[in-house]
């Protein structure tokens, strides 16, 4: 175990005791007491009490939570268990499967390539991936063979369509019973088991399935970011793991975020669970820790403090510790409204930018905080939000598969972290 990881491990009991230890670790994140940055320590404790209540109710095994304001980390807590069966305590340096919180990172890499003039957001995807040059849309038609007609696309899928989930792909959310969805599910059965294929193979396979909607016509949250990952590989000339590492992780000092978890760190991967009616918390199999299929849509592993560095870079307008990862204008483009409303009930009152949801000035968000607050979440209830007006980053890391608890968990954490603001 590295010195940095040992020092972070010693800090599990609370951030305010950690400052002197973290000063010895590589690229330490600045720390402060809650009051020094306008937060109430007693009110902040309500976050811990909330997580502990969910544990007592057997709805959650454990979590890591963090709150940072004005560039200072004020709360970093590990609560409960990383492994319920062995009763291994959660640690602040544990590794979480980030799932869809991989997507904002992929967005940042794509925007870097745009800044370098290597792609344009209006470029057709087929410019880089020729397999998408002749896409069709599946439309129900009783007199057609199999009851399905495949009509030509009105225009090509663009990189911007990938970034905004408007490419028209089947296999997304909200779920639909449509000809394209049925054909997509059948085609998925022909892929090798256990994700034993490459990103290139997956994308070429996806291109053989018809679209569910015309490009640009509708928000379909699905494999668009996975395809974006393959565009990144082709444009950069790097595999996805190398592109992420060289363009984001190394510049930001994110030393514990990766697709393939090093052997020595695999014991720090938090076990995922699902909350089943009548069965309680049920252990799920771990996702591959050395995957062949690298998905920009969702198979990174990482720590809470690593992800904080990415969030703080965005809050700073693209820069951290003197290193610029994105231009300020690119971060503003991420936060701009590209899709006015989202079809997920838990994102009511939000628009969609590039890779992130953005709190609207009006609409029934039901969340404390400021309009313009942005962020995303992952399928195991990892969650982050950045409030530029309040200069605040909040993040929750669990490994609980999406369930009826997700609204209670994410909304509860969000509001309890936000209510601690004193000024």
How would you characterize the overall build of this protein?
- This protein is an alpha+beta fold.
- The protein has a domain at about 100-260 and about 295-360 and about 375: Beta-lactamase, CATH 3.40.710.10.
- The chain has helices at about 5-10, 20, 40-55, 105-115, 160-165, 180-190, 200-205, 225-235, 240-250, 305-315, 330-335, 405-420, and strands spanning about 60-70, 70-85, 90, 95, 135-140, 150, 255-260, 275, 280-285, 300, 320, 325, 350, 355-360, 375, 385, 390-395.
- A hairpin with a 2-residue loop joins strand 11 and strand 12.
- The protein is globular and about 65 Å long.
Features:
Beta-lactamase; 423 residues; eight-stranded antiparallel sheet; disordered N terminus; three-stranded antiparallel sheet
In short:
This protein is α+β, with helices and mostly antiparallel strands and 423 residues long. 29% of the residues lie in helices and 17% in strands. It is built from 12 helices and 17 strands.
Top-tier CATH class of the domain at 99-259 and 294-362 and 373-377: Alpha Beta
- SSE-based structural type: alpha+beta
Shape: globular
How much beta, percentage-wise? Answer: 15-25%
The strand order across the widest sheet is 3-2-1-17-16-15-14-13
N-C termini distance: 40 Å
In CATH, the architecture of the domain at 99-259 and 294-362 and 373-377 is 3-Layer(aba) Sandwich
CATH structural fold name of the domain at 99-259 and 294-362 and 373-377: Beta-lactamase
SSE order, one letter for each helix or strand? HHHEEEEHEEHHHHHEEEEHEEHEEEEEH
Q: Summarize the main sheet.
A: 8 strands, antiparallel
Q: Which ranges are low-confidence, i.e. pLDDT below 50, for 5 or more consecutive residues?
A: 1-26
Q: What is the CATH H-level superfamily of the domain at 99-259 and 294-362 and 373-377?
A: DD-peptidase/beta-lactamase superfamily
Strand elements, count? 17
Please, how many helices? 12
Radius of gyration: 21 Å
Approximate helicity band: 25-40%
